[in-house]
Structures are given as structure tokens and as C-alpha cells.
Amino acid sequence: MSTRTFVVLFFSAMALWVIWLLFATGLSYRVYLHDGAPDKLVMLAVAALGGLMAARYKVLRRIRTRFLVFCGVFFYLIATLWNAPEVWVRMRASEIVHSEAAFTIGHPGPPYARYKHCEAGLRFYDEFLKRSIELCTRDALVPPGARSVQLEKRVSSRGAIFTHYRFMSATGYPQGWWPVVRPSR
């Protein structure tokens, strides 16, 4: 293999890896896993096993070199696999389910960037996931006296993707459906 071919393949693989990281990380604002799922522990175990397998080669004679190889492979696999359960839920979620829950509005809302938060957070307890959820919303969308929110989500055996929500007014009439989207920056 020529040097030029190797460089092209290396940078193509790195570009695909960065695209994967951006795609998988971008799902975290609306994909939620079941409470108590051991997914992160499994990812740590897989990364540790991959690091140990990479560090066991006889070519690596020094302990320091083996340790550096273990750390490099471990952190590479952690970065690659950390959001894999969310991607799995996104790919496998097919059944559309509607539910209703009592809610509260919190200020500020959940973070969507390192130092930025949503204007308001729609907080509720989801019975299917058995955990508290907080979605981004705006104060202007909440009708006065609203007591519950209807949720539309796609579910799989591992978690759910929240797609739409709408508030129920104090008189019991539903408002329009609002998509669960990342807030504009």
C-alpha cells in the first residue's frame, strides 16, 4: 500500500469517526433509556476488554507501552461506544405510543450546549421509562392553567424517542402538537 493511499484511508476513517460521534451525541436531547439499564457499565466493560486485548500483543514489550496502548484503545472505544445504546433505540423504535402526564415547568430548562440552557424545561415522570424526563419548551407554548401534557413517543425495548407533545388546557381541550426539537442557538 502506498503512503498516499494510507493517508487517504486514515483521514477517511477519521472523518467517518467524527461524523459518528456528532450523530450519536446529537441524539441525547430526545432519546431516553430505561431507568437502571446497565448500558453504560456494558460499554465500560467492552472498552476495558478491547484495551486489554490490544495491550497483550508480544510486540509491546515494555509495561509503559502496554499501559499507553491500553489507555488509548480504552478511551477510543469509550468515545465510540458511549452513545451506542441511544443509537440502538433510535434505529429500533417503531411503535408509536401516546401517554399523558402531570408536568411542571422549570427555569432554566435542560442544557443543550456547554454553557447554554433552554428557556424553560418541561419536567414530568414517564411511566414507560420509569424515570423523570425534562424536555425543552418555551413559556409561550404553555396555556394558563394547564395541568397535564400529552406525549407522543416511539418506543423500543431499550427506551423511547419523544417526538411530539401538547398541553391540555384547564378546560380539558388539547393544544396543538409541538415537535421535540433542539432549541435554536
UniProtKB/TrEMBL annotation:
TM ranges: 7-29, 41-60, 67-84
Keyword Transmembrane: yes
Entry superkingdom: Bacteria
Keywords: Membrane, Transmembrane, Transmembrane helix
Protein name in UniProt: Uncharacterized protein
